[in-house]
Write a structure and sequence with these properties.
- With 196 residues, the chain is mainly alpha-helical.
- It has two domains: 14-64, no CATH class; 92-189, no CATH class.
- It has helices at residues 33-51, 53-66, 68-94, 121-128, 134-143, 155-164, 168-173; strands at 9-11, 18-20, 112-116, 150-154.
- It has a two-stranded antiparallel sheet with strand order 1-2. Strands 3-4 form a two-stranded antiparallel ribbon.
- It is elongated, with a radius of gyration of 28 Å.
- The chain starts with 8 loop residues before the first strand and ends in a 23-residue tail after the last helix.
- The structure holds zinc ion (3 copies).
- One zinc ion is lined by residues 12, 14-15, 17, 28-29, 31-32.
Length: 196
């Protein structure tokens, strides 16, 4: 960078603002530089892929073979993240910004499930192809823009509702005695507990 005046004022090629250039070839201001760099890389690699798809595929294959465990771990991480995002989105749509059990108010996300309010999960699966629980159900709900008929319940309340038709929390609040454990189980709900 010899021969270049140190405090040259440049004009950012991205945002158009004036900035203090540190070198003769600096085109972007400090704020735009990392973004502009990422944009350039994306455009370059996309056009390279269009020209030489086979080369890129082979290079990826070689890289994957060399660092198999690394790429596997990365794929698993991404998979988990995608699933968690979907789950959070579904729970928020049926509850609120901080999803909670509609019965007991439990907020621990790990404990929360989606419950078919009418308790006819098996019927709904047979008649309409609505998955009973877990990620297939979450995907179905998103695809169908979160239809009514579902609510957020924690696993405990869900199990209790599946067993008695409604959670024993509510029967206790009513003042009525807890249903006997040999009462008719709701067969429609027994498959609701998600294992995924
Ligand atoms: Zn800029
Ligand atoms: Zn609950
Ligand atoms: Zn409950």
């Amino acid at each position: 960078m010899r021969g270049v005046p140190p405090n040259k004022i440049g004009k950012c090629a991205r945002c158009g603002q004036s900035f203090q250039a540190k070198g003769p070839s600096q085109k972007y201001c400090d704020g735009c530089r990392p973004i502009a760099y990422r944009e350039a890389v994306r455009i370059c690699s996309a056009s390279y892929y269009r020209r030489y798809p086979e080369r890129v595929k082979l290079a990826n294959k070689v890289a994957r073979a060399k660092r198999h465990d690394y790429y596997l771990a990365m794929a698993r991480r991404q998979h988990r993240r995608t699933r968690e995002r979907l789950r959070t989105m579904v729970l928020r749509n049926y509850s609120g910004a901080v999803p909670r059990c509609a019965c007991c108010g439990e907020r621990e996300q790990d404990f929360l499930t989606i419950d078919h309010i009418e308790g006819r999960a098996r019927d709904a699966e047979k008649k309409f192809g609505i998955p009973r629980a877990g990620y297939p159900l979450y995907r179905w709900l998103r695809r169908n823009r979160f239809p009514i008929g579902f609510q957020v319940l924690c696993a405990n309340c869900n199990i209790s509702k599946g067993k008695h038709g409604k959670c024993t929390h509510t029967t206790k609040l009513d003042g009525s005695p807890t249903l006997p454990s040999d009462s008719e189980p709701n067969s429609f709900n027994s498959g609701l507990i998600q294992t995924a």
